[in-house]
Specification:
365 residues, alpha+beta, Cytochrome Bc1 Complex, Chain A, domain 1, 2 domains, 5-stranded mixed sheet, 12 helices, 22% strand, metal ion binding, Metalloenz_LuxS/M16
């Protein structure tokens, strides 16, 4: 179901009076260049992060509305809670927030505070995650140094450029989950002047001359190790990759595995782990983990609806319908899962990370 600016997907859940809305685009802090129509544009990630924070605070201060704006490596997602009586009014507030930018006169002081907040929050853990992102998002050519520069040097004109293309002109995906009583036509009519273009980030796969890291040694605050996994979604169906990562999450549930998901590449950070390239599971364990993943879907959709709507959007932007995946997983056998996992692990890249008092070193091979 679409109108000019939004592609809308609605899942009714009549037993809950609340409505959970997530709205997303395939642009984030690791994507700098993109195609819009027939033209190529670039933006500074710092300007995107600045505007996201500004809009979030503006919604809270002027409309007393909590709208979460999450900027991931290659996705930006708005999410908020509404009700059937308030839905159209909340959509109108969202439109005002999406259109709001600071004035040129306000910008210098806001920019100064933004940089100060970033500096104060830049911990060793954040630094480590940004370095890991260079491996987990290498098809986007993400660079921590370039990211820092974009935080330090963007201008008001850069903010205007982000507003013009990333918040006003491009087409969004919208997921609505809950007790929706309005006619679909009323929901679709909330914006009739938008553009019909979806944004397409520019991706440059590695050449034969380029090398993927095999190991990283970092000067950390404590001695510990991690293992990174990366899967190129140009090589493998996203459903197979996602299934594999979900099984790994079950196996390493005690290690708090972190998974990155988008339409280009999928990755994982596994703390306190040395090697998963020879990862093997018996069929009984696969069946157990499959059942756990199914129960996880049921728990999120039934008890954690706001998180569920955000997660649904994250997967949908990446090209995977979470509900379709749930139905697919119900039918697939443990043997089929084993075969798919084997294929995904064979085409994936791995990187060992050692944190110690030593200087940083990157190992190419």
């Amino acid at each position: 179901m679409t109108n000019n600016q939004y592609k809308i997907k609605i899942h009714h859940k009549a037993e809950n009076k609340k409505i959970y809305i997530s709205i997303g685009i395939n642009v984030g802090f690791a994507t700098r260049d993109f195609v819009y129509g027939n033209d190529v544009y670039s933006f500074k990630p710092g300007a995107l992060l600045f505007l996201a924070k500004y809009k979030e605070e503006f919604a809270k201060e002027f409309y007393n509305k909590k709208i979460n704006i999450s900027v991931y490596a290659s996705q930006t997602i708005f999410s908020f809670i509404s009700s059937s009586k308030k839905l159209i009014g909340d959509i109108d507030i969202f439109e005002k927030i999406k259109s709001k930018v600071p004035s040129r006169e306000e910008f210098p002081e806001l920019f100064k505070q933004f940089k100060l907040d970033y500096t104060n929050n830049f911990s060793d853990e954040v630094k480590e995650e940004l370095i890991y992102s260079e491996f987990l998002h290498y098809h986007k050519r993400f660079s921590m140094d370039n990211f820092h520069k974009s935080i330090e040097s963007f201008t008001f004109e850069d903010v205007e450029e982000v507003q013009k293309y990333l918040f006003q002109k491009i087409r969004y995906k919208v997921y609505i989950y809950g007790n929706v009583e309005e006619r679909i036509e009323d929901i679709q009519a909330w914006s009739v002047n938008g553009c019909s273009e979806f944004i397409n980030p520019i991706i440059l796969p590695l050449t034969d001359e380029e090398v993927v890291w095999k190991g990283i040694e970092l000067n950390g605050i404590s001695d510990r190790r991690s293992y990174l996994m990366h899967t190129n979604l140009f090589q493998i169906p996203i459903a197979d990759a996602y299934l594999t990562y979900q099984i790994l999450s079950q196996w390493y549930s005690d290690k708090k595995i972190q998974i990155t998901i988008d339409s280009i590449e999928m990755g994982a950070i596994l703390p306190n782990t040395d090697n998963i390239e020879d990862f093997k599971l018996d069929l009984a364990s696969i069946q157990l983990f499959k059942d756990n993943i199914l129960r996880q879907y049921e728990y999120l959709s039934g008890r954690k609806q706001l998180f569920y709507s955000e997660y649904f959007m994250k997967l949908w932007l990446a090209g995977l319908d979470y509900l379709d995946f749930y139905l697919y997983l119900q039918k697939i056998s443990s043997e089929e899962i084993e075969d798919k996992m084997s294929t995904v692990l064979k085409v994936s890249q791995f990187c060992k990370v050692e944190l110690s008092k030593q200087n940083m070193e990157i190992i190419d091979e």
